[in-house]
From TrEMBL:
Domain (Fibronectin type III-like) ranges: 789-857
Top-rank lineage group of the source organism: Eukaryota
PANTHER family per record: BETA-GLUCOSIDASE (PTHR42715), BETA-GLUCOSIDASE A-RELATED (PTHR42715:SF29)
GO-annotated molecular function: beta-glucosidase activity
Keywords carried by this UniProt record: Carbohydrate metabolism, Glycoprotein, Glycosidase, Hydrolase, Polysaccharide degradation, Signal
Protein family according to the UniProt entry: Belongs to the glycosyl hydrolase 3 family.
Signal among keywords: yes
UniProt xrefs under SMART domains: Fn3_like
Signal peptide: 1-22
Swiss-Prot/TrEMBL catalytic activity: Hydrolysis of terminal, non-reducing beta-D-glucosyl residues with release of beta-D-glucose
Coiled-coil segments: none
One annotated GO biological process: glucan catabolic process
Listed name of the protein: beta-glucosidase
Organism: Apiosordaria backusii
Amino acid sequence: MRPISPTLVGLLLSLTPSLSTARTETPFLGFPSPWISPTPTPSDSDPEWQAAYDKAVEFVSNLTLTEKVNLTTGTGWEADRCIGKTGSVPRLGFEGFCLMDGPLGVRYVDKASAFPAGMNAAATFSRKLIKARGEAMGEEFRGKGVDVQLGPVAGALGRTPLGGRNWEGFSPDPYLTGAAIAETIKGIQSKGVIACAKHYILNEQEHYRGSVDVRVDDRTMHEVYLWPFADAVRAGVGAVMCSYNRVNGTYACENEWVQNYLLKGELGFRGFVLSDWGAQHSTLGSALGGLDMAMPGDIMGPGAQPAYGSHWGGALTQAVLKGEVPQWRLDDMVTRIMTAYYRVHTGEYTSRPLPNFSAWTQNTTGPLYKASNSTWTTINEHVDVQSDHAKLIREIGTKSTVLLKNNGILPLKSPKSIAVIGNDAQDPPGGPNACPERACITGTVAMGYGSGTADFPYLISPATALLLRSQKDNITFFNTTSNWDLSTAQSVAASVEIPIVFATATSGENFVSIDGNAGDRNNLTLWDNGDALISAVASVNPNTIVVLHTSGPVVIDYAHNNPNISAIVWAGFPGQESGNSLVDVLFGDVYPQGRTPFTWGKSIQDYGVELLTAAPDPRNPRQEFPEGVFIDYRWFLTPGKGDRNNVTYGFGHGLGYTTFEYSSLIISKHDNWGEYSPTTGTTPPAPVLGSIPNQDDAKSYSFPEGFERWRIPRYVYPWVNLTIFNSENGTAKAPSIGDFPSEARDGRAQELLPAGSKEGKEGGNEGLYEVLYTVTVDVKNIGEVEGVEVVQLYLSLGGPSNPSIVLRGFEDVSISPNESKTVTFTLTRRDLSNWNTETQNWEISKDEKVVFVGSSSVDLRVNGTLPSGETVD
């Protein structure tokens, strides 16, 4: 056992007023977060949540011990038709839960859509489109018989632009990500599917992701990384996935501070926490630390291959029988799961389609239980769930395309000839799904790689779309595919009016690697000789257009400063309609409203953060977040931190085909403020639902007599193993019950947290969401074409410890030539507040606060100061 460090003691003392019950040394993990409270019991809530909770309580009250355990534990990797599947309750005719990736579509199935990535959705800066994307995905997941969509993503948030999974999420700005994840959740769950916000929390890189100990201070946690999850909870998300990494010493999936104290206590989360695949590390630690569902159920060994056994299943049954896990905690797990289920199964979605596919093959027939090679049967019904979603995918792809640079060449005006240059424009030679997990760059890249992908039903490449448009408009068309044959590229480029050169840089998950990039990118250069290709083409033609499909920013300053490069277009990862979306923008068929959801710096060093790639102790990698709340534009634009001169394209930047003028900023204070008061009172005591008959007789909960002939190999069951039960060691791979304070198993009423939810209001203290100010600004189109302006509101919170500005509002507005529109924003108490580590609450400082409104973080047109002192409660 290792004693807790003095440094961490100081950190933990900033997390809570009293740590008299905190562990001072770790039984099994090292440098633990403290035990602050057991899992809190939800309070009464809004009518929809309360109705769902009441149904869940009634259902759970009728379950046996093993039936309850069955619903908390996955049946094992490859043990069922879904990526994750819990056990069922055959006695009541209740099928286990089917869980499937991912954040941009149903993974591993046919006849489903490949939507634009999360970062593209964010780049639209359109709440309407983001929600519509969620609705369409929800329809497809439900149509396939999926109960839980493993998305959307708020972690990785995007602390470093090298982060492998940033593209799955939305933006390194917590406000934008919070707004986007909330709208996505509302869309998904409106279609009868449980959304799962992930990866909770601080899962900011792929290197060492399974063991890295991330050290973060309490303020940074609240103001940056927890912020979008609060929005997810506020939106009513049904599930949250805990991440692989450790947080201040303890694995996230058994970290009582992040799961019980922050998520379920402070934010008032009503749903259930499920583990990432293999992120569970113990029986008791995870059960008492706030985990509610174990995925995939069996213990995942090196290389994600099953190392037989389970932390839960029969081990959890055993722990309950021995009193190591109290019955109320098991009841709470199942009640949370069923509450989320009933919450989305309302109205027209009370029925529940069952899975009609296999995640392990797209063949029509195969083994029902792949891991056991069971009797073959029909496992894929090939249900087409795409509907007309291609139209929405194309629209989002178009409206997320960002014009970074345009010297007037766009939109294209009847060019006589064009050339498409580069591998990234081409049809993948083996088809769009030839590379497993999309882990290659042979052809155009329209999504990253890893578990956040989906199979393309088809992929319209830029080369194909531009060829079709050229044929339609009688444009002479040339195409060259190689990134390395620079002489041919130059020859073709010199012979046409408009050369369009394509380049990429992708990223993904660490279980696959491309050219030495193990999930995280190694640098911010373009791949496959892309930078050299761009420079070579530009050297022979002053009308060069550059198109980028990248998972985030790249160093592109050389192209920005090159006068022969007339336009730079970032298309991100637009999904199956990639080429069509691009053509719509290049030819001006659709107005380009895309805005970059991250900052483009001149070098990786300019971002002020480091990726941990070579830990001094690889067995115990540790990562500090010394930059605190200063990431992305918050770093670049704050004097004494970054340098705004190192910004090539600022957060929120994006050009259009017209010009907008800003005027008449008005800040109106609301007169009916309520006093902001710390939450007081207690939670209800934890209910015990039903009873456990014959608790002293373990044999009553062992495998039924004669079951062996029906037993499926490698399938996780809820029954105890009597040999293990009767051994001195007890539950395998679990710490001793003596390693946990008695408070960890205490089901009595708990004091509510000062910033916490009360009376079932989710997302924290209800006073945080009270509107204090309304801000209006007039925006006029002074150009000659109708256009969409993304109007952005930034706030200076004042004080030396704050970023110079933070995003606090955005609206996309369509305005005709010579028309003026008034755009309205609201500012809540939360928007104006900082986290106080001493009071464990949000507070508005006395520092002067200034509102800025403009078209990007580096193009602020008008500003006004909030009346001095009036923002202090």
